[in-house]
Amino acid sequence: MNIKTHLSNCLFVLLLILLTSSCENRQKSVSNKQFSADVIVYGGNSSAVIAAVQVAKMGKEVILVSPDKHLGGLTSSGLGWTDTGNKAVIGGLARDFYHRLYLHYQDESAWRWQEKNEYGNKGQGNVAIDGENRTMWIFEPHAAELVFEQLVAEYKIPVHREALLDREEGVVMVEDAIHSIKTLDGNIYMADLFIDASYEGDLMAAAGISYTVGRESIDTYGEDWNGIQTGVLHHGHHFKSDVSPYVIPGEPTSGVLPRISTEEPGEFGDGDHCVQAYCFRMCLTDLPENRVAISRPPDYDSTQYELLRRVFASGWSEVFYKYDPIPNHKTDVNNHGPFSTDNIGMNYDYPEASYKRRTDIIEEHTSYQKGLLWFLVSDPAVPEDIREKMSHWGYSRDEFSDNGHWPHQIYVREARRMVGDFVMTENEVLGKAPVEQSVGMGSYTMDSHNVQRYIKPDGFVQNEGDIGVHPDDPYQIDMRALLPSKDECSNLLVPVCLSCSHIAFGSIRMEPVFMILGQSAATLAVMALEEEGAIHDIPYEKLRQQLLEDGQVLQQ
């Protein structure tokens, strides 16, 4: 299949005119609503940008169709305390991204609110500035977004922003291949190859490709850490003391406090359709000159945090344990403890929800998290020393300025996951099963955040689903995990919602790995174009040689 060869000759002059326009509109067009390229990348996150860059580097035309306004996903939306694992296995364009951040922070003007020497090399085992390898692993959101924007400008990649896929009628299939996709603004995009690099896997799903949502049972793939994990307490994000879930402590007839499920948690090891909790990775600052004070949200309801009052009453005081310092007196705030920024149990329908429903879920998470901040600042049940310290924190004035200083992207830790002919499981991650066709490596802990908050048989509250199992060595990710079954689709690659189990995804889901897989997926797409064949038919050895030439790390 070669769509561009079927374009009418009468459009040739129009195409030439369009190709000389600005870089964000420099693509072949059949009309002002139809666009064509060799490869269409759907997504706006780090994996999507890197995939588009790789296509351009290899000399093919690409359009980045981004459902988002801002590029970079979580990497540019608060997750500046990078979950790297073993940095030695991060190569290719991913390493180049962190090198570009290093160069950014070599400029003294980047240190607006803090001397570079004052910041030093913050990190508990996570070095910010690796001078020897000229990389920067901890950074501000706007710095990451700047690098992504520089990349698409440098490689003259057209970016169509806020272009949401028409998930109902927007994917046209011809036999076993995607012919075109349409976005809600009416634009139609045609290509020989497509890459779905979105966090949600919307293009994959709309193309009719097999996928799953939730946790498989431990029997599905012969795993130990999948499924419901009641009684497993790994990270400390659980209730360490007996805390009553009832409105009147100890009295079930009085009703249950907010944000606690009254459903049974399920049997240990069974699968379910629940997903790990989401949150926003807030960028706060304690520098008065750059601080926007935390204020009371209009819809604030203190009863939503009654459970946290009881946690404080039990003696817990670890509020600031995951206020990880990033440059310029800012912090990447992540979940920590039994009741924190993770909005447990409030996102189950997000992966397959309509855009309207997703917006509602995002707004509810925003309300919850902003309310949590105000609670910590103002509620008398919060220990005085915590309230006093919290009063020094606020939103960073110079971050997310067009969104009220709030992150653009919610942390979609997990959504859909493709089910292809090959599925990455904990057995490959932990080195129990071989990987024959490596297209990149991961090394981070198999990390699942809590999935549900339930009432134990003894009448006290507990969280479930928080798992942290560290592989002894970096592991390889198989090429086949990026491919749908050939009889389902022959021209789509999926580097984010790839074919893997829930618990394997807990390690693979790190942003550097998404970039690695984005580059590898794009490389395979271009090679299929050059060979005029299907992505499934490209010899692995040929792909491997190209990946190594481009700096990817495929084994240790």
Question: How are the SSEs placed, and which strands pair?
Answer:
Elements: H1 12-19, E1 28-29, E2 34-42, H2 46-57, E3 62-65, H3 92-106, H4 116-119, E4 129-130, E5 135-136, H5 141-154, E6 159-160, E7 171-174, E8 177-182, E9 188-196, H6 202-206, E10 211-213, E11 246-248, E12 251-256, E13 282-285, E14 291-293, H7 306-313, E15 323-326, E16 330-333, H8 355-378, H9 384-390, E17 394-396, E18 416-418, H10 426-429, E19 438-442, E20 446-448, E21 452-455, E22 461-464, E23 467-469, E24 475-478, E25 492-493, H11 502-508, H12 511-531, H13 540-549
Parallel strand pairs: 2-3, 2-9, 3-6, 9-25
Antiparallel strand pairs: 1-2, 4-5, 7-8, 8-9, 10-18, 11-12, 13-16, 13-17, 14-17, 15-16, 19-24, 20-23, 21-22
Helix pairs in contact: 2-12, 3-5, 3-12, 8-9
Structure, described:
The chain has 556 residues and is an alpha+beta fold. The protein is 25% helix and 18% strand. It has helices at 12-19, 46-57, 92-106, 116-119, 141-154, 202-206, 306-313, 355-378, 384-390, 426-429, 502-508, 511-531, 540-549, and strands spanning 28-29, 34-42, 62-65, 129-130, 135-136, 159-160, 171-174, 177-182, 188-196, 211-213, 246-248, 251-256, 282-285, 291-293, 323-326, 330-333, 394-396, 416-418, 438-442, 446-448, 452-455, 461-464, 467-469, 475-478, 492-493. The strands form 8 sheets. Strands 1, 2, 3, 6, 7, 8, 9 and 25 form an 8-stranded mixed β-sheet that branches. A 5-stranded antiparallel β-sheet has the order 14-17-13-16-15, with no helix packed on it. A two-stranded antiparallel ribbon has the order 4-5. A hairpin with a 4-residue loop joins strand 1 (28-29) and strand 2. Helix 3 (92-106) crosses helix 5 (141-154) and helix 8 (355-378) packs across helix 9 (384-390). The longest helix is centred in the middle third of the chain and has 24 residues, at 355-378. The chain is globular and about 70 Å long. The two termini are 38 Å apart. The model is unreliable at 1-31 (pLDDT under 50).
